[in-house]
């Protein structure tokens, strides 16, 4: 039997944790080649290349310092080289970079390759926004599953228990990915809903920006719970309004309600939004100051969603999404986040 060969496309905070999980699992599970190539967007750390440091220290000193990565994970600076011969692509990069990476991979992937997207966000085109899984599927002409959940990378790196959700169309692939990703501390549930899983992961980041603003305004836990509840309803309404075949049950998986909660309490989007209120600095500035190269997904997603709502005249039906956008991009008074949703 031909063994599956895994490549991890991405090596940020979550990408590196995922490489750690998979590097361990491919050795313990049957049917996988042991070496995993991990694509690294090359950068210099002082005088040294990040790829060289990762391969020497078996640690991503920039995006996941202090955590060991298995030695069978090999950092590669060329994305085509990283994907060469892989039958499984694990795509885990900030959403704004997926299109560029797909362009490079086009025509350069194994004929039997399949992908799983861990990306939380949308792809913007002139005519609107599209799910990232659709972009990957069409660019590379391959089948794509999705993985999303209440998954703060730094906690999973410490092997603290969490759940996640994999969305599949082909059950065989869903089961294969469950075998690849599941560990004692990372429990995978598979559902027949590729888009539902992915879209929850993208939209919860906008709710997290709202929750962070509530923290910054010091409005307390009841107000934050209201934002979470209203955000969850807007997330469901948006997904159901614009996409067909989404299952109600998906919203109760880890990728749904659980991810909304964890991001609103422990995520980077929440943290930056709180600082936005407290310091008055721009999100761009705060991303640089607070995240050391990691990327925020929620502000861009808020803008992308707002453009859809505005074009269709739906702002009043999505008051939280609309108000978050207006506070971030139009200078609206942050207190409006409460006034506008009640
Ligand atoms: N970090 C988490 O806790 C977490 C958990 C679940 C899902 N996610 C999602 O996974 C995706 C990846 O997140 P992450 O935390 O691994 O990344 P990250 O936020 O750490 O992003 C930094 C990564 O982007 C790369 N990068 C910078 N400029 C680039 C460019 N021009 N082209 C390509 N890559 C470039 C950097 O090299 C680095 O690897 C996101 O959609 C995120 O929402 C993150
Ligand atoms: O840190 P955030 O806000 O990008 O959220 C991280 C994960 O998506 C939580 O599941």
From TrEMBL:
PROSITE patterns: NAD_G3PDH. Transmembrane segments: none annotated. Residues 193-339 form the Glycerol-3-phosphate dehydrogenase NAD-dependent C-terminal domain. GO terms for molecular function: glycerol-3-phosphate dehydrogenase (NAD+) activity; NAD binding; protein homodimerization activity. Its EC number is 1.1.1.8. It catalyses: sn-glycerol 3-phosphate + NAD(+) = dihydroxyacetone phosphate + NADH + H(+). Belongs to the NAD-dependent glycerol-3-phosphate dehydrogenase family. This is Glycerol-3-phosphate dehydrogenase [NAD(+)]. The active site is at 204 (proton acceptor). Keywords: NAD, Oxidoreductase. GO terms for cellular component: cytosol; nucleus. It is an enzyme of class 1 (oxidoreductase). GO terms for biological process: carbohydrate metabolic process; glycerol-3-phosphate catabolic process. Residues 5-172 form the Glycerol-3-phosphate dehydrogenase NAD-dependent N-terminal domain. It comes from the Eukaryota. NAD(+) binds at residues 10-15, 41, 97, 153, 268, 295, 297. Substrate binds at residues 120, 268-269. InterPro entries: 6-PGluconate_DH-like_C_sf, 6PGD_dom2, G3P_DH_NAD-dep, G3P_DH_NAD-dep_C, G3P_DH_NAD-dep_euk, G3P_DH_NAD-dep_N, NAD(P)-bd_dom_sf.
